[in-house]
Each structure stands twice: as C-alpha cells, then as structure tokens.
Write a structure and sequence with these properties.
Keywords: Aminoacyl-tRNA synthetase, ATP-binding, Cytoplasm, Ligase, Metal-binding, Nucleotide-binding, Protein biosynthesis, Zinc. This protein is α/β, with parallel strands linked by helices. It contains 15 helices and 15 strands.
Length: about 475
C-alpha cells in the first residue's frame, strides 16, 4: 500500500510516509467566523474529510485539527455593523459553520481550537521570534515578522521578496503612532488595538496590549496540538500566499520543522471566477440545502478531484441529484431483497483494488467513482437476475466505497430523523393507492389505473413500475 499525495511545496505527487508509523497529524485552516458559509468554504472541508476517511480506511490513526478564527479585523467590523459584541458575533457564526459541516456529513475534527483560546501559546511563539532576531516591535502593541531575516522566505510558493510588488502580501500597518514597519512585506504577529475597538478584543503582552495577527494563530495552534513537526497542512488554494507562506516562515524561523507536506484544494468557480463574498457570487450553503438534499450537495463538492477547479453551473446540483438517486435506489432495493448490512461489516469490507488504486493516487475521486458505477451496474444486473448472493456482495462493496466518500446511502447521517409519524402515514396512504392501482391494472381498468397515477403525480409522488412491482418516491 503506497498512498501518493501532491505536495504544493514540491509541486509534485510524492509517496506519503507518516512521521510516526501508523499515525497522521493534519492541520486544516478553518473558518473566520464573520458571516454564514458559502459553498467555497465547504469544499476544502469536504475534501479533507474524504482524505481523513481514506487514511483511516487504510489503517492509519488520524488526528485532524481545524481551527476557528474568532478574532480578526473582519469579525470586529461585521460585529460592530450588526450591533453585537464581537465574541457573540463570532459564536453565532461558529455555530452556523458547525451546522453546515454536520449537515454535509463531515466528521468532527479531533480538536477544534479557537484563536482566542491559544493566546499564551501565540505570545510565547512571538517572544521566541523576537529573541532569535526574526521579529521586532514598533510602538505599543505592534510586533512584526522581519521577512528579510529569513532567507528561505517564499520557499512554499517559490517567490523571492525582492520580486514581489509592494502590494503583494503586504499588510497594512497596525495601530497608530510609532507603528511603522521596516519593510512593506513584513507581516503582523501582534496588532495594537485601534481607536474604537472593544477593550475585550485585546490582550496584554510584553510588547504592549493588542490582539493576534492571523498568521501567528495557526502556527501556535498547530504546534500546540500536533507538535513541532507534523505531517500535513492544508486549506484552500487562496491561502498559499500570504497566509501559509507566512505560517511556514515564522514557524521554521522559530526552529520548528512545521508541516512536512502542503495540500491545497482548488476553488469553486462560477463562469471561471472564484466564489467569494467580496465579489457577491458566493452561494450560501443554506441556499443550496434549500434546493437539494444534503448528500446531493456533498456529492457535488466531492465528485471533482480536489486539485481541480469546480465550476458551479446551473445544472451542477441536478446532475448530482440524478446520480445520488441511482445510488440510493440500488441500496434501497438491494437491502429490501437481502436485508440490511451491519455498519461494522461495511467499515471492515475490502474495497475493490481499482477503487483503492484511484484513491491512493492523490485522491482521484472521479476515477474512484467510475469503479463505483461499475459495481452499481453489476448490482442492478444481479437484482434483475435474482442472484441474492451477488446482490449482497455488490451491496457491501458499493456501500464500502461510498463510505470512504461520506456518501453511504444507508448511513444514519442521511436518514430522516425526528418525528416519523408523517412519513409512516404517507407511506400507508401511498401503499393503499398503489394497491388499488395494481387491482385496476389486473382488471385492465386502465382509466382507473392512470387516474391513480396522475393523482399521485399531482401530489409530488413519482411511481415507477418494475418486475418486482410498483415503487414510489418523492419527485
């Protein structure tokens, strides 16, 4: 078994060997909780959920850290505009993000630290950088990383400081008086509080009162939860520069090995343009979930290889819905024929070699889905031929592959929860109608049969006739 993953720093697909045999440490940059999530926020999270599931299926123990940025310029600005305390605003949207993750079947991270919960670790890292000559203070509460002090700065994205324009990656000077930095590309480790900002949004440090810079928090939390050196750091493609470049520089300048591999997930685009709030083209997850069931949205996000741009078109959800209904249709029919398969059996089942090879090849989900569809066809053929043993084999195999993608139709995640009395009542009423229709067809009363079908269709119920009898679904 050789898992091969693309390394952004090396710009090539390389064999993946964990630092500690049998264990993997992953740090995934999480949300800045300033507003509701759009589909672009969810794609990296779903992609890393698939990675985690596959590494686990391969027998590795995965520790996944996904942070929450709950203090930031944007959080302060948005909370002020909304008339809320900044911490209440952050807590509100942290819950909204969590609800979106849960809705799409994302396994909760091993730990999900907030930036405000790791301030002591950030101050310690900042002091270390100052002591080693890689950071300096200006004014009261402003501390900067000196990019010229670290010759390897730019190694992640293969850029040189002298080749950058003054605007690229540059950060506005924090605070007010005495805050000027040495070089345009020096970035903030700590920011002095600005006039009008809440007192509660700053902390005391040896360099003055202020709040953390965006880049410092991730380096501090990664070390706290994964150690000085860990396996994989990832996030969206847009984070490579300056965020991840700055993280790597400050962590390695502090003497830590930091991430041994970088993985970045490509954007979700519309008409070739990256989705973002600032451009006004971000599709809110809540809007998508109003248009389609959660597994359909997850399928649309997961079906494209994570390093490929995902072009979100008007028919994206409908195509995903069609595929999802084919998968659920087989799992439902097969389970009715041979009985439910225990989740423990699905979790332990071997996946086909072709599927495993595709997933080992830098999570080639499109190729893995081709194998899924081969077995879907084989399962439908077995159903038609009446071979129960073959039906069960294909059911287990199909569910095992889909479980890796977080898309097993029989997973309780995708079942209807809550008060099921309405569903039971509907099922009974439709069953009675289908029985009456079957009797009408047996008596060759086609007018009555068609009337029943039309009545069900008008109520949003689609009837499908098969050799095993009529089935129904919500249209």
């Amino acid at each position: 078994m050789t898992i091969r993953l693309f390394d952004t720093a090396a710009r090539e697909v390389r064999d993946f060997t964990p630092i500690t045999p049998g264990e993997v440490g992953i740090y995934l940059c999480g949300a800045t909780v300033q507003a509701p999530p759009h589909v672009g926020h969810l794609r990296p999270v779903v992609a890393f959920d698939v990675l985690r599931r596959w590494l686990t299926r391969r027998g590795l123990k995965v520790t996944l850290i996904r942070n929450v940025t709950d203090i930031d310029d944007k959080v302060l600005a948005k909370s002020a505009a909304a008339g809320r305390e900044w911490w209440a605003h952050a807590a509100l949207y942290e819950r909204v993000f969590t609800q979106a993750y849960d809705a799409l079947g994302v396994i909760p991270p091993t730990y999900e630290p907030r930036a405000t919960g790791s301030v002591p670790e950030m101050v310690g890292l900042m002091e270390r950088l100052v002591e080693r000559g890689h950071a300096y203070a200006t004014g009261e509460g402003n501390v900067w990383f000196d990019v010229h002090s670290w010759p390897a700065y730019g190694e992640l994205t293969r850029q040189k400081v002298e080749d950058l324009s003054p605007e690229e990656g540059a950060e506005a000077t924090a605070g007010t008086a005495g805050a000027a930095k040495k070089n345009p590309h020096d970035f903030a480790l700590w920011k002095a509080a600005k006039p009008g900002e809440p007192e509660s949004a700053s902390w005391d440090t040896p360099f003055g009162r202020g709040r953390p810079g965006w880049h410092l928090e991730c380096s501090a939390m990664a070390r706290r939860y994964l150690g000085e050196t860990f396996d994989i750091h990832g996030g969206g493609l847009d984070l490579r520069f300056p965020h991840h470049e700055n993280e790597q520089a400050q962590s390695r300048a502090a003497g830590y090995g930091f991430a041994q591999r970088w993985m970045h997930v490509a954007w979700v685009t519309q008409s070739g343009v990256k989705m973002s709030k600032s451009l006004g083209n971000g599709l809110l997850v809540s809007e998508l979930l109003a248009q389609a069931p959660a597994p359909v949205v997850r399928y649309a996000l997961a079906a494209v290889q994570y390093r490929s741009m995902l072009e979100w078109a008007p028919d994206t959800l409908e195509e995903a819905r069609t595929t999802w209904e084919r998968l659920t249709g087989f799992v439902t029919r097969a389970s009715e024929r041979v009985g439910d398969v225990p989740a423990e059996e699905v979790a332990k089942a071997e996946v086909p070699e072709a599927f495993a090879a595709a997933m080992d090849d830098d999570l080639n989900v499109p190729q893995a889905l081709a194998v899924v569809h081969e077995h879907l066809r084989a399962g439908n053929t077995a159903l038609a031929s009446g071979s129960d043993a073959a039906v069960r084999d294909e059911l287990v195999t199909l569910r095992a592959m889909l479980d890796v993608l977080g898309l097993d139709p029989a997973d309780p995640q995708w079942s209807t929860s809550g008060d099921d009395r309405y569903a039971t009542a509907l099922d009974g009423l439709v069953a009675a109608e289908l029985k009456a229709r079957a009797e009408a067809r047996a008596a060759k009363d086609w007018a009555a049969s068609d009337a029943i079908r039309d009545r069900l269709a008008a109520a949003g119920i689609e009837v499908q006739d098969s050799a095993d009898g009529a089935r129904w679904s919500l249209s």
